[in-house]
Here is the input.
Amino acid sequence: MGLTEADWSKPLIGIATTWTGTMPCNMGQRDLAQHVAAGIRAAGGTPLEFNTIAISDNLTMGTPGMRASLVSREVIADSIELVGRSQRFDGLVCLVGCDKTVPGAVMAAIRLDLPTVVLYSGAMAPGRYHGRQVTIQDVWEAVGAHEAGRIGDEELAALERDACPGIGACTGHFTANTMATAVDFLGLGPIGLGSVTATDPEKPAAAEAAGRLAVDVVARDLRPSALVTEAALANAVTGVAGTGGSTNGVLHLLAIAEEAGVPLTLDTIDAIARRTPVVASLTPGGKYVAGDLHCAGGTAAVMKQLLPWLDGDALTVDGRTLAEHAAAAPDPDGEVLAPHDAPFKPGGALRVLRGNLAPEGAVVKLAGHEPHVLSGPARVFDSEADCKAGVYDGLVQPGEIVVVRYEGPSGAPGMPEMLGITSAIVGAGLGESVALVTDGRFSGATRGLMVGHVAPEAARGGPLAIVEDGDTITIDTEARTLQLDLSAELIAARLAGWTPPEPRATSGVLAKYARSVSSAATGAVTR
Ligand code: FES
Here is the structure.
């Protein structure tokens, strides 16, 4: 192994990378790990590198492979945990990038409770197409527009080539960047290092600094149990809400709270989101991308504006509090970041709905221009694929509420993201006139009125299972309700006559996951 006797008596620091050559998101991590290792050695520790898996949401979107994505979060957590338990490290650095790798590594860190630094390997640079800045979201909406005949093959191919110009995680404030923000607010991310973009020449130095920090964290014996507290989780929700983050942030923070044994409910998340102004203008809700936010001061500058709603005494991994980081951050530039007393949007972009269609809750993200109340006839599909075909075949009409069910954590299994459908809806010109209700998830790149995470899910007998074409569904985002306009008696009678569908997965990891996964309302964790 190339180690000396002396090396074994130094702090042994595991470096968990989620490197894979199958996607751009984590592709820089194999090199970055060497810089982390150099930092560990320079600070007097001994690095021991290991690797785990990653699944790209964008490469699997709209395919059966998407069912593997959320499942991978558990595998990532389990695999890092197992290596950590077997190797008896003194400390840990986790290099994370694509969506599930971030919460997966945090969950493992909490289980192991070793002094840990979670370093985000960085977002991709944005693409440029005909002089405008573009991201993967533009490609997805172009796919929908292409299917609807609104753009041709050549335009789609050109945009596809230009949108993702190198390595790194998706550059919009989709799930990866949302969770990277959350990790900083949780205190596990070294503030100012993770937000350096993947291809920034400063990234290797940031990785080396993270390695040095890891040895220091071991010396201070600062463990995730001291960082990931109830206050830190509330701070993370505030960070997600205040940057206009993805609905997946809700799911992952619930899962992290479950691991930490910290009480966090959908209602708490709704209450925090309600009071937190959106101070960052980040795509898809705003204009800018991750690199712009880093240049505007990064997470610390966001903290500076959100400080009235944060517990500023919460500690971060470098030993400084959130308030100390905020104090050293620049003022808002008015473009990427706004002052909290003149925010881009008021609070409440992320909302939790309840009602007879979602007794355990559902999650919606509002752009701000939607009608508060939307009522319409249901158009029901039993799978994502059926729905997509229905949209392309012109089956979905303006004014309808599209229901996509049996796509929850257990039923799908794996609670796939519905970006293919939402992009098809937007691409077909129906983005403003139909809403979507599903027990599946949405990508951070989703636009339109989309209610997801409906719990309990249809496959486990949630009321979504008994909705029929033409039933009236009412979404009231102001009253935070999701109602099926049928009597309780009729719903009960239909549920009594309902039989669960045959499981879609009967063997392998998906079957195991389908049996052991919890409700989306508690983070879809495996038990
Ligand atoms: Fe990996 Fe978006 S698909 S970060």
